[in-house]
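Entry:
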Amino acid sequence: MATSDLEIGDVKIKQGQVVYLILGAANRDPAQFDEPDKFDVTRTNNKHLAFGAGAHFCVGAPLARLEGQVLLRTLRRRYPKLRLGAEPPVYRENFNLRGLKALKLECD
C-alpha cells in the first residue's frame, strides 16, 4: 500500500492505493531481455528477479541454480533425443508467480 503519493514512470499512485509487484512480468520485460518469452538457459546478462535482490536475495539461489544445471545436464545425457512435445506448456493460474503446471516432453 502506497504510504504517500508517488509517480512510477507515467503512472500516478495515490496514498493508500494498493500496488502489486509482479515478478513474472518483470522477468519477461522486453526492455531488459531479448526474446523475453523464450526459455534460454544460455542467456547472458540475465538480471531477472526470481531470487530477489539486495537484502532480500534468496540464500538458496546458488543451490537452486546448481540443481537446475545438474537436472538439465543429466536429462540431456540420459535422453539425448528429448524434446518438447506437440502440446504447448500449461502455466499455473497465478497472476504473480509464473510457473509451469505441465510440460509435455517426447523422446524416441
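The chain has a mean pLDDT of 88.
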